[in-house]
Every structure is written in C-alpha cells, then in structure tokens.
Specification:
Length: 92
C-alpha cells in the first residue's frame, strides 16, 4: 500500500501493518470526537511516526497513486476533523 503524508511524500507500507495502524486510528477518532487536543496530538504523532517506522520511503520523483492519504504533521485537530472519514484514515 502506498501512503502519502501531506507535505512530506510517500511511503510503501505492507498491508500486514494495517491492524497495528488501525488501533492508533481508532484512538485518534475517539480523541477527535471528545475534542481532546492533547490526546489527539499525542496519537496523531504516534500514527505518523509508526508509518515512518514501518514504511519504506519512495523517491521524491516517484508519483505512485496513493491508497491512503494522511494529513501533514502540523495539522490541527480541526484540520483533521475536516479530512478524516466516518471510519478514520486506516481501512479495516
């Protein structure tokens, strides 16, 4: 799966990591619903860090179609609320 992090680029991520990422995504959804800005920042950062840790960066010149798009690291809770789907960012 190709994941784009807005403002950063793309990484290739094995589908086998989706379960682990989905747990963070579920936490993020709960924090968005509660308006928990501190929890949101902590979990959103953990999600992006995990994508970086588990994924392999693609070259900047590569223009692969992204199957998953995550907001930029400096996105606010309000920014993410506008971008996130009903079920979160991570499928599953």
């Amino acid at each position: 799966m190709i994941v784009r992090i807005m403002g950063e680029g793309q990484v290739r991520l094995a589908d086998s990591h989706l379960t682990e990422l989905n747990k963070l995504d579920d936490e993020l959804m709960a924090e968005l619903e509660q308006g928990d800005k501190d929890g949101f920042r902590r979990t959103f950062t953990a999600l992006l860090d995990k994508v970086h840790e588990l994924g392999d960066p693609l070259p900047d010149a590569s223009l692969e179609p992204s199957e998953l798009i995550l907001p930029a690291p400096d996105s606010t809770l309000e920014d993410v609320r506008r971008l996130i789907g009903e079920w979160g960012f991570i499928p599953g």
